[in-house]
What does this fold into?
Amino acid sequence: MTTQPYTRPLPVSQPEWDFYWEKTKAHELWLMRCDDCNKAYFYPRAICPMCFGRNTKWFQSSGKGTLHAFGIVHRAPTPAFADMVPFVVAQVDLEDGARIPTNIVIDDPTPEKVKVGMNVEVIFDDVTDKFTLPKFKPA
It folds into this structure.
């Protein structure tokens, strides 16, 4: 059996993100927290976006959260996404305090099945040998 190569956009490797991608490859979701203001945030960077403090560190997320906002994509933005439609793009509020952009993986992506405030949990999509993407499913 042959597998098709992954043809959708992939992250660009950067020193600030390398640890994050290593952990997603291990099916773990890690975030950053500022010790000055005690806020968790995403995307990873050395400077806290809330207080601009530099006293930040990594921590492992529970991967649980609630759906903050979503949209159901019915027309692919590029041909690379044509086989995915319809799919759900979303913002998830993690119980750890950060908000993360993602996809909701659900068999029937309709407004009746996807609701703001629904509980979700992280799953991992091994798209290439180098990258695993965190996505969410209903909890």
